[in-house]
Specification:
By secondary structure, this protein is mainly alpha-helical. It contains 21 helices and no strands. Helix 6 (126-149) packs antiparallel against helix 19. It is globular and about 65 Å long. The model has no long low-confidence stretch (mean pLDDT 83).
């Protein structure tokens, strides 16, 4: 066992993919309606797998690097929980409400542990093997849906859904499309299309994987996700044309621009301009605009607005369901940016959006380099567009994928290449200091690998 390297072990790879696949099957409507999010706990098998290898081999490879990633990822989630606890105490919320909020967020900690375990075992291949498990689950769900509704009709409905660009009337009239509707994995496939096209250089089959991800993305087509993908691709292409210094400036500028954009987006929703725009252009949001207008009664755009605590919006809509006060027949805000503001308040929201976009971007630039930071920003711009009209910010697979991809890209062997002497001469003092820190970290990583072998 001391010579067994998990990254090349068919046993470890197969077991990891199996655990992810089993957990992904929980997104099938038949299982999801019966068990909810419980099947996602099966992904903890990946954590157990990493622990078994660690205890058996005593191999602490990349321990320092992975610990830094763990702290960075957890700090964002811990900040949301701690701020919510303060708000819950101030508002004298019931224990039941608090438990619901913290239990839902606990899946995020499991999510992070799975990501760190995958990075420990598979390094730059962690994202690829995660994709294999999710894609396999998605294909099985499609096959089961076709068997339930008829293969011939399923193929026709699938083609019609793509041709009509995910039109609501096509979805409503297709039993097959409704049967295979898996919001989270569909959004995730868009992330992997971007990853395999732009940030998986060492994988010789990456275009095949990108094509598979694109097919699964189109099978469960989300129009807002398609818009996000186009924006992300444009950003990735533009960033690729810049030198390292230009890429650092770009991601830094965009991270601050996102902060401004998020607050501006909330302000136009609160003013009613967003709903008016939709009505004027006859854009159908399937009742979302009614929820946005209703939620506007519970918050103000002011530094004095302290927030309601995590999961307030969901609980509010659930309590209204089946009563005369019910707005629409859905219990989710379908707008994560608005939801975060309502629940965290002015200052909590500001801390969150700065922490998530500005702090994490800076962290990736200084710890992992500008290329990893560009990768992080590209996939998060894609997700940001979906946050505007959906509620996938804390979806399990979405959260896992946008964490494991930058981690895997950091371990890409191409990232270990030394800069040329002439590039060093063009650096500023600050850039040279950051570069020296990165080289020290990389040398420690190389020494760990040499000691292991």
């Amino acid at each position: 066992m001391d010579r067994l390297y998990t990254k090349d072990s068919k046993i470890y790879i197969g077991l990891y993919i199996f655990f992810i696949f089993c957990a992904a099957m929980g997104d099938w409507k038949v299982i999801n309606e019966a068990l909810g999010g419980l099947p996602k706990v099966l992904s903890a098998g990946a954590v157990g797998l990493a622990v078994v290898y660690l205890l058996w081999s005593g191999n602490f490879k990349n321990a320092k690097t992975l610990f830094h990633f763990f702290v960075m990822y957890v700090s964002i989630i811990a900040g949301i929980i701690l701020w919510s606890i303060i708000l819950w105490i101030i508002d004298f919320q019931t224990i039941g409400f608090i438990l619901k909020g913290t239990s839902k967020m606990s899946f995020q900690f499991l999510d992070i542990l799975v990501v760190i375990s995958a990075g420990y075992m598979f390094e730059e291949k962690a994202a690829k093997y995660t994709f294999f498990g999710l894609a396999l689950g998605n294909f099985v769900i499609i096959i089961l849906g076709a068997l339930m509704t008829g293969i011939g009709g399923a193929i026709n409905d699938l083609i019609m859904n793509i041709i009509h660009f995910g039109a609501s009337d096509v979805i409503e009239n297709s039993q097959f499309i409704r049967a295979i509707e898996i919001h989270d994995i569909t959004f995730v496939m868009g992330v992997y299309v971007i990853y395999f096209l732009f940030y998986c250089h060492g994988e010789k089959h990456r275009y095949i994987y990108a094509a598979i991800a694109l097919f699964l993305f189109m099978a469960g087509l989300k129009r807002i996700a398609f818009m996000g993908m186009l924006m992300a691709i444009v950003f990735a292409c533009f960033a690729a044309c810049l030198n390292p210094k230009g890429q650092v400036r770009l991601v830094t500028l965009v991270s601050f621009a996102v902060v401004v954009f998020c607050y501006f987006y909330i302000s136009i929703i609160h003013s009613g301009a967003f709903t008016a725009f939709l009505e004027e252009h006859e854009i159908e949001l399937m009742g979302r605009e009614k929820i946005y207008d209703f939620i506007s009664n519970f918050y103000t755009l002011s530094p004095s607005y302290r927030g309601k605590g995590y999961e307030f919006c969901v609980q509010l809509l659930k309590d209204m369901k089946g009563t005369k006060d019910q707005v629409v027949n859905i219990t989710a805000v379908h707008n994560d940016i608005l939801k975060m503001y309502v629940e965290l308040g002015f200052w909590g929201f500001l801390m969150w959006v700065i922490g998530y976009y500005v702090y994490q971007t800076h962290w990736f630039v200084t710890r992992c380099g500008e290329k990893v930071a560009v990768c992080f920003m590209t996939i998060n711009l894609y997700m940001l567009i979906s946050y505007m009209t959906d509620n996938n910010m804390f979806y399990y697979w979405s959260s896992m994928s946008i964490r494991v991809i930058p981690l895997a890209f950091f371990f890409d062997p191409i990232k270990q290449m030394q800069l040329k002497i002439k590039d060093k001469d063009e650096m500023t003092k600050f850039e040279r200091k950051l570069y020296k820190k990165r080289e020290i970290a990389k040398e420690q990583q190389r020494e760990a690998w040499l000691n292991y072998y």
